[in-house]
Amino acid sequence: MGTFAAGQLYQARDGWQWACLGAAALLLLGALAVRVAVRRVGVSEYPVEPPEPAAEHTADQDPKPLPREPESPPGDTPTRSSESGDARNARNVRNWVGHCVLFVVGQGALAVFGYSWPVEAVFGGPHEAEWIWNSSGHWLLNVSRVWTLIWLVDTVWTWGAVLLTRRARR
């Protein structure tokens, strides 16, 4: 039914914009709901290493010594499965800050050449609807638009994880 309705909207005069907007909204809501659904089902977010099987031996056999795991040097980063929620949140926020710095520097460079979509959206004045929905010019402007969307999804994903981890501890 949803595909049929989107197809009918897409064939209408200006309905293709509403069809695309509806599809984008469904994808965004689905992305937000995935994290909540995975936690509710009880699936771990990061894989956990399976325990080693117990070695069976008889009384007349000498048990073989188990190999020792190498000890990690001090200051070595823990694996994801042994990380606490606070450590994982701190790592995710650090990564997000790095992504933000890269995004701002990259968009600044694109703005110098006149192809930064967020700068154009904020300071460029009123635009036609095709400017947002359709290919609006140079390929660098389209790259900037896609990069902005990716940065927004990264922001929602990172801060959603931080907030859900904090909420789960309460």
Q: What descriptive keywords fit this protein?
A:
extended, mainly alpha, membrane, transmembrane, 6 helices, 2 domains, 170 residues, transmembrane helix
Q: Separation of termini?
A: 41 Å
The count of helical stretches stands at 6
Q: Which outline best applies?
A: extended
Q: List low-confidence stretches.
A: none
**How many DSSP E strands?**
0
Secondary-structure-derived class: mainly alpha
- Strand count, sense and closure of the main sheet? none
**Residues in helices, as a percent range:** 55-70%
Description:
Helices cover 64% and strands 0% of the residues. The chain has helices at residues 2-11, 15-41, 85-112, 117-123, 129-133, 139-169. It folds into 2 domains: 1-44, no CATH class; 83-170. With 170 residues, the protein is mostly helical.
Would you summarize the structure shown here?
The protein is mainly alpha-helical and 170 residues long.
Task: Present the secondary structure layout.
Layout lengths: L1 H10 L3 H27 L43 H28 L4 H7 L5 H5 L5 H31 L1
Helix pairs in contact: 1-2, 2-6, 3-6
InterPro entries: MFS_trans_sf
Keywords: Membrane, Transmembrane, Transmembrane helix
